[in-house]
Design a protein that fits this description.
This protein has one domain (about 1-34). About 40% of the residues lie in helices and about 25% in strands. It contains 1 helix and 2 strands, in the order βαβ. α1 (about 10-20) links the parallel β1 and β2.
């Protein structure tokens, strides 16, 4: 699974936390929206 995320996003943090809690592997890609 590939997760595109903006570091300052609270929602992205929740998704990363859930994936880690579930033990699911994911590839994290930072997105700059500035």
């Amino acid at each position: 699974m590939r997760l595109f995320d903006y570091l300052d996003s609270g929602n992205g943090y929740k998704v990363r936390l859930l994936l880690a809690q579930l033990g699911l592997a994911f590839e994290w890609t930072a997105v700059d929206i500035d």
